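Running log. JK asked me to keep both predictions on one page so they can be read side by side. First protein, sequence followed by its C-alpha cells:
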Amino acid sequence: MIIDSLKNFSNYVALNPRFAMVAEFINTHDLNALTEGKYAIDGDDLFVNVTTAKGKTPAEARLETHDRMLDIQIPLSTTETMGYTPRTLLAPEPYNADNDITFYDANKPQQYVDVHPGMFAVFFTTDGHAPCISKEANIKKIIFKVKE
C-alpha cells in the first residue's frame, strides 16, 4: 500500500511498467472535470473508472482484494477513509474471476487511513482494502485499474 500526494506520483513509476502512463494521464487531464465512465488507456491492462461511490460507515465497508489488477484510488469530492489489512492475514474467501475481486465478510480492517482530495492510495494484490468510508453520502472518485 502507498498513500501520498498526487504531485509525488511520478516518484513511483519504477514500481510498475504502466505507472508512467498513469502519471501521464494525471498530468494531462483535469481529473475533476472528467465525466463518469470508463476510460481505456492500455486496453484491459490499464484503464480508469470515474465514478460516484456511495459513502459507507466502517461497519458497512467490506475488505476486498484483487488477483490480477492493482488499484490506484483518488478521491475527488471529499476525504475518503480506507481500511487496510495485509492479504496474508485474511481468511480465505471465494474469488470472483469475472470481476477480479474477493470480498472478506469475516474480517474487518486492522487500520484506517484518510485520503484527501489531491492524494492517492495504491493497493497492490497483496493488500486488503475497504474503500468508500465517508460521512458524505457520495464520493466522486477515480480508480485506475492496473495489471500487476
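And the second, directly underneath as requested:
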Amino acid sequence: MKKLIFTIFIMFILVMFFVSCGWKVEIVDPREPEESESELLISKEEKTEEESENSKQENSEPETKEPEEEKTFPPLSGDYVLLETSGQTIYQVLEFEDKFIVYYGEGNIAAFDVETGEKIYEYFLADVNEMFAFDMVKNDYKEGFDFSVSMWDRIVYLSSENPEKIEIVFLPEDIAKTVYQKSESYSIYEDKIIWISKEGIQIGDITGENRKILIPTGDILNRIKPIAEKAYDELYFVDDGEPCVFYEVSFICGGEKVVVTSTSDKTFVYWSAALYDIESGEFEWAYNYNEMVNSDYPFADKYVAVGKKWINAETGNYKNFKCWPRSANGTDFFRTGWQNTGFELYHGDFENIEENGKLLLKTDREGADAYIDGITENYVLVHVYEGEEGWDVIARYK
C-alpha cells in the first residue's frame, strides 16, 4: 500500500514538472483523424472563398463569345449544284448515272449525288502511292468494276457502286521501274498497255507478256518531222541534233491508235503531237507547235488538243481557236471570262465559243473568281473562290 501511494506521488511530481516546463499534454480520441487547429482554419477559409466564387458565377451573366464569321457562298446565277467537297485539291472527275466521282490530289476518292450535291462516301486509297497517280478513267474491262486509277507501279480497279470493292494489278517490275522515271508515261486499254521506255514506245499485255517495240526512239524524227512540217508549215521545225524523247502516250480511237507528244531532249526547242496507227505501223499525222505546254488528249476518245488547235484523230481535220477553250467531247466547249463584278462561264460549240457562246454561270460579287476543274459527259465542274475561301459546283450543260 505504501509503495502504491509512493508511486502515484512520484508520477504527480513528474507531470507537474513537465507542465511547468511548457509541455502540453493532449488527450487524442482515436476515433477522429488528427487535424490541427490551423489546418481547420485554412480549410474553412478555402471553403468560404470557393462558395463565394460559386455564388459570383451563379449570379453573373454567362460569358458571350464572338460568333464565328460564316463562310458565305458568292451568289451564282445559272443551273448548278453545290458539292459537299472537303476543300482538298480536285485532281480528276468522272460522271456516272446518279453520282459524281472525284479523285483528290491527296489520294481520296469521293462520290457525290448529282441532284443534291451531298457526299455519298469518301475513302482513302491507303494501299496505293497517290503521289504518282496520273489518270482516272472509266474502265469496264473487269467484271464488277467501272473505273480505274493508274499509278506508277499499279492499276487500281474500283467500283462506283461499292467503295469497298478494290482490285490492284501490279505492273511488271521492269515496266514499273521505267515508268517511275516519267509521269503520264503509260496508257491502258482493256488488257493492253503501252509505255515509254529508253528504246521507244512499247506495247504488250498488262502482265508484261507479248511485248514489242512499237515506235523506236531513233525513228521519231525521221517519221514525224516531214509530216509535221507539211501539216503545220507556218512554224519552223527545229532540228537541234538532240535525240527525241516521248513525253506522253495514250491509246485513242478504241485502242486502235496511239497519240504521242514528243520533244527534243534537254533543250525542248520543239514540241509535236502525232497519231500512230497500230495496224498499219505508220504515223497518220503530226503537228508541231511552239507553245511551251503539253498537248492534251484524248477527249471523247478521238480529239487531241495541241495548244489552241483541236484535232479530230479519226480524220486529221482541225480547228484553230483564238482563245483557250476547254472541252470533253470536241463538240461542247467552255471558257471563263472575268468582269469587274465577278466571273462568267460560257458554253458553246465550234462556231460560237469565240464570241463567248451561251452564258452558263455568273457571279455578281466583286472579287469572286472561278476556274474549270473538270468536264464530264453532261456536267462541268467549276471551282469558285473568293480570297482564301473556295467552293466546288457542277453545272449541267446538256
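Observation for JK regarding the second prediction: Residues 6 and 12 are 10 Å apart (CA to CA).
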